[in-house]
Amino acid sequence: DQQVKQNSPSLSVQEGRISILNCDYTNSMFDYFLWYKKYPAEGPTFLISISSIKDKNEDGRFTVFLNKSAKHLSLHIVPSQPGDSAVYFCAASTGNQFYFGTGTSLTVIP
Amino acid sequence: DTAVSQTPKYLVTQMGNDKSIKCEQNLGHDTMYWYKQDSKKFLKIMFSYNNKELIINETVPNRFSPKSPDKAHLNLHINSLELGDSAVYFCASSQDSYYQPQHFGDGTRLSIL
User: Fold this and answer.
1) pLDDT tens across B54-109, in order?
2) With an 8 Å Cβ cutoff, is A105 touching chain B?
3) Which residue of B17, B48, B86, B95 could cross-link B56, Cys pair, CB 3.0 to 4.6 Å?
4) Nearest by CB to B106, which of A2, A41, A96?
5) Which of B98, B101, B104 sits opposite A96 (nearest CB)?
6) pLDDT (tens digit, 9 = 90+) per residue, A40-66?
7) Contact present, B56 and B45 (Cβ < 8 Å)
8) Which residues of A touch B102 (CB under 8 A)?
Protein backbone atom coordinates (compact mmCIF):
# COMPACT_ATOMS: atom_id res chain seq x y z
CA ASP A 1 0.00 0.00 0.00
CA GLN A 2 1.92 2.96 -1.32
CA GLN A 3 1.07 6.12 0.56
CA VAL A 4 3.34 8.38 -1.48
CA LYS A 5 3.26 8.28 -5.27
CA GLN A 6 5.32 9.86 -7.99
CA ASN A 7 3.42 9.07 -11.15
CA SER A 8 6.00 10.32 -13.62
CA PRO A 9 8.99 7.97 -13.74
CA SER A 10 10.95 10.37 -15.92
CA LEU A 11 11.10 13.98 -17.07
CA SER A 12 13.29 15.77 -19.63
CA VAL A 13 13.79 19.53 -19.59
CA GLN A 14 15.97 21.95 -21.53
CA GLU A 15 18.74 23.70 -19.63
CA GLY A 16 17.56 27.05 -18.31
CA ARG A 17 13.88 26.08 -18.24
CA ILE A 18 11.76 25.14 -15.25
CA SER A 19 11.58 21.56 -14.00
CA ILE A 20 8.42 20.60 -12.12
CA LEU A 21 8.35 17.31 -10.25
CA ASN A 22 5.11 16.12 -8.71
CA CYS A 23 4.17 13.94 -5.77
CA ASP A 24 0.82 12.79 -4.36
CA TYR A 25 0.07 11.29 -0.96
CA THR A 26 -2.94 9.58 0.55
CA ASN A 27 -2.52 9.95 4.33
CA SER A 28 -3.92 13.23 5.67
CA MET A 29 -1.90 12.72 8.88
CA PHE A 30 1.36 13.50 7.05
CA ASP A 31 2.63 16.86 8.25
CA TYR A 32 6.24 17.01 7.08
CA PHE A 33 7.39 16.60 3.50
CA LEU A 34 10.83 16.34 1.96
CA TRP A 35 12.56 16.08 -1.39
CA TYR A 36 15.76 14.13 -1.94
CA LYS A 37 18.05 13.96 -4.93
CA LYS A 38 19.92 10.80 -5.85
CA TYR A 39 22.81 10.21 -8.24
CA PRO A 40 23.64 6.68 -9.45
CA ALA A 41 25.56 4.54 -6.93
CA GLU A 42 25.05 7.15 -4.21
CA GLY A 43 22.54 7.54 -1.41
CA PRO A 44 19.72 10.09 -1.52
CA THR A 45 20.74 13.62 -0.52
CA PHE A 46 18.33 15.89 1.29
CA LEU A 47 17.26 18.86 -0.83
CA ILE A 48 14.40 20.77 0.77
CA SER A 49 11.53 20.23 3.18
CA ILE A 50 8.20 21.81 4.10
CA SER A 51 5.94 21.46 7.09
CA SER A 52 2.18 21.31 6.71
CA ILE A 53 1.72 24.75 8.26
CA LYS A 54 3.27 26.28 5.14
CA ASP A 55 2.34 26.07 1.49
CA LYS A 56 5.67 27.13 0.02
CA ASN A 57 9.35 26.90 0.90
CA GLU A 58 12.23 28.25 -1.16
CA ASP A 59 15.94 27.53 -1.15
CA GLY A 60 17.85 29.10 -4.01
CA ARG A 61 16.74 27.55 -7.28
CA PHE A 62 14.50 25.03 -5.49
CA THR A 63 10.94 25.71 -4.34
CA VAL A 64 8.55 23.20 -2.83
CA PHE A 65 4.80 23.80 -2.96
CA LEU A 66 2.29 22.00 -0.78
CA ASN A 67 -1.42 21.74 -1.52
CA LYS A 68 -2.92 20.00 1.50
CA SER A 69 -6.47 19.87 0.19
CA ALA A 70 -5.28 18.06 -2.94
CA LYS A 71 -2.68 16.04 -0.98
CA HIS A 72 -0.13 17.13 -3.54
CA LEU A 73 3.35 18.57 -3.43
CA SER A 74 5.66 19.70 -6.17
CA LEU A 75 9.29 20.67 -6.55
CA HIS A 76 10.20 23.49 -8.93
CA ILE A 77 13.77 23.92 -10.12
CA VAL A 78 14.49 27.21 -11.84
CA PRO A 79 16.62 27.50 -13.88
CA SER A 80 17.39 23.85 -14.52
CA GLN A 81 21.03 22.93 -14.96
CA PRO A 82 22.66 19.78 -16.38
CA GLY A 83 24.00 18.97 -12.90
CA ASP A 84 20.40 18.66 -11.71
CA SER A 85 20.05 15.45 -13.75
CA ALA A 86 19.31 12.83 -11.09
CA VAL A 87 16.47 10.85 -9.54
CA TYR A 88 14.27 12.90 -7.23
CA PHE A 89 12.37 11.25 -4.38
CA CYS A 90 9.62 12.86 -2.39
CA ALA A 91 8.95 11.69 1.16
CA ALA A 92 6.16 12.29 3.65
CA SER A 93 6.21 11.89 7.39
CA THR A 94 4.04 11.87 10.48
CA GLY A 95 7.09 12.78 12.54
CA ASN A 96 9.28 9.75 12.96
CA GLN A 97 7.91 7.50 10.24
CA PHE A 98 8.92 8.32 6.68
CA TYR A 99 7.33 7.12 3.44
CA PHE A 100 9.07 7.56 0.11
CA GLY A 101 7.83 7.73 -3.46
CA THR A 102 9.48 5.65 -6.19
CA GLY A 103 11.29 8.61 -7.71
CA THR A 104 11.30 10.67 -10.91
CA SER A 105 14.37 10.61 -13.11
CA LEU A 106 15.11 14.15 -14.31
CA THR A 107 17.28 14.75 -17.34
CA VAL A 108 18.34 18.31 -18.07
CA ILE A 109 19.40 18.64 -21.70
CA PRO A 110 22.22 21.12 -22.37
CA ASP B 1 34.97 13.05 5.29
CA THR B 2 32.14 10.61 4.70
CA ALA B 3 29.18 11.45 6.95
CA VAL B 4 27.37 8.10 6.77
CA SER B 5 29.47 5.19 5.62
CA GLN B 6 28.36 1.64 5.10
CA THR B 7 30.34 -1.46 4.22
CA PRO B 8 30.50 -3.40 2.08
CA LYS B 9 29.29 -1.54 -1.01
CA TYR B 10 28.57 -4.80 -2.83
CA LEU B 11 27.72 -8.18 -1.34
CA VAL B 12 27.22 -11.27 -3.49
CA THR B 13 26.43 -14.46 -1.63
CA GLN B 14 24.59 -17.76 -1.77
CA MET B 15 21.10 -18.43 -0.56
CA GLY B 16 21.08 -19.68 3.03
CA ASN B 17 24.19 -17.79 4.11
CA ASP B 18 24.38 -15.26 6.97
CA LYS B 19 25.79 -11.81 6.28
CA SER B 20 26.25 -8.45 7.99
CA ILE B 21 26.29 -4.87 6.76
CA LYS B 22 27.97 -2.23 8.88
CA CYS B 23 27.05 1.44 9.17
CA GLU B 24 28.76 4.31 10.92
CA GLN B 25 27.92 8.01 11.09
CA ASN B 26 30.25 10.81 12.18
CA LEU B 27 27.61 13.54 12.32
CA GLY B 28 26.87 13.18 16.01
CA HIS B 29 23.26 12.26 15.21
CA ASP B 30 21.05 10.48 17.72
CA THR B 31 18.92 8.47 15.30
CA MET B 32 19.90 5.87 12.72
CA TYR B 33 17.86 3.92 10.18
CA TRP B 34 17.95 1.00 7.80
CA TYR B 35 16.02 1.23 4.54
CA LYS B 36 15.52 -1.34 1.79
CA GLN B 37 15.16 -0.31 -1.85
CA ASP B 38 13.68 -3.10 -3.92
CA SER B 39 13.75 -3.71 -7.66
CA LYS B 40 10.82 -1.33 -8.15
CA LYS B 41 12.90 1.46 -6.56
CA PHE B 42 10.55 1.54 -3.58
CA LEU B 43 12.50 2.84 -0.57
CA LYS B 44 11.01 1.43 2.61
CA ILE B 45 12.06 1.83 6.23
CA MET B 46 13.03 -1.32 8.10
CA PHE B 47 14.33 -0.15 11.47
CA SER B 48 15.05 3.02 13.38
CA TYR B 49 17.20 3.44 16.50
CA ASN B 50 17.40 6.46 18.74
CA ASN B 51 20.36 6.53 21.14
CA LYS B 52 20.81 2.77 20.73
CA GLU B 53 17.12 2.08 21.46
CA LEU B 54 14.86 0.51 18.83
CA ILE B 55 12.00 2.89 18.02
CA ILE B 56 10.70 1.65 14.67
CA ASN B 57 10.54 -1.99 13.69
CA GLU B 58 8.52 -2.44 10.53
CA THR B 59 7.17 -5.76 9.38
CA VAL B 60 10.49 -7.34 8.59
CA PRO B 61 11.30 -11.08 8.84
CA ASN B 62 13.01 -12.15 12.06
CA ARG B 63 15.99 -13.13 9.96
CA PHE B 64 16.90 -9.42 9.94
CA SER B 65 18.43 -8.25 13.21
CA PRO B 66 19.79 -4.76 13.74
CA LYS B 67 22.43 -4.08 16.36
CA SER B 68 23.46 -0.68 17.69
CA PRO B 69 26.60 -0.93 19.86
CA ASP B 70 26.64 2.86 20.25
CA LYS B 71 24.74 5.75 18.74
CA ALA B 72 27.26 6.18 15.93
CA HIS B 73 26.87 2.62 14.66
CA LEU B 74 23.94 0.57 13.41
CA ASN B 75 24.73 -2.80 11.88
CA LEU B 76 22.35 -5.12 10.08
CA HIS B 77 22.70 -8.88 10.33
CA ILE B 78 20.74 -11.14 8.01
CA ASN B 79 20.37 -14.87 8.64
CA SER B 80 19.46 -17.56 6.12
CA LEU B 81 19.48 -15.25 3.12
CA GLU B 82 16.70 -15.73 0.55
CA LEU B 83 16.43 -14.69 -3.10
CA GLY B 84 13.89 -11.99 -2.17
CA ASP B 85 16.48 -10.30 0.04
CA SER B 86 18.28 -9.07 -3.06
CA ALA B 87 18.03 -5.29 -2.90
CA VAL B 88 19.98 -2.15 -2.08
CA TYR B 89 20.13 -1.48 1.66
CA PHE B 90 20.64 2.10 2.80
CA CYS B 91 21.72 3.27 6.20
CA ALA B 92 20.74 6.79 7.27
CA SER B 93 20.98 9.07 10.27
CA SER B 94 19.20 12.17 11.53
CA GLN B 95 19.77 14.61 14.36
CA ASP B 96 16.88 13.17 16.31
CA SER B 97 13.89 11.02 15.53
CA TYR B 98 11.23 13.63 14.78
CA TYR B 99 10.81 15.98 11.82
CA GLN B 100 14.42 15.82 10.74
CA PRO B 101 15.85 15.15 7.27
CA GLN B 102 17.96 12.04 6.98
CA HIS B 103 21.51 11.71 5.74
CA PHE B 104 22.00 8.55 3.73
CA GLY B 105 24.95 6.30 3.09
CA ASP B 106 25.72 5.20 -0.45
CA GLY B 107 23.99 1.86 -0.09
CA THR B 108 24.96 -1.80 -0.06
CA ARG B 109 23.85 -3.79 -3.09
CA LEU B 110 23.06 -7.31 -1.91
CA SER B 111 22.74 -10.01 -4.57
CA ILE B 112 21.67 -13.52 -3.65
CA LEU B 113 22.66 -16.30 -6.03
Assistant:
1) 888 787 899 999 999 999 999 999 999 999 999 999 999 999 888 899 999 999 99
2) no
3) B48
4) A41
5) B98
6) 999 999 999 999 999 999 999 999 999
7) yes
8) 46, 98
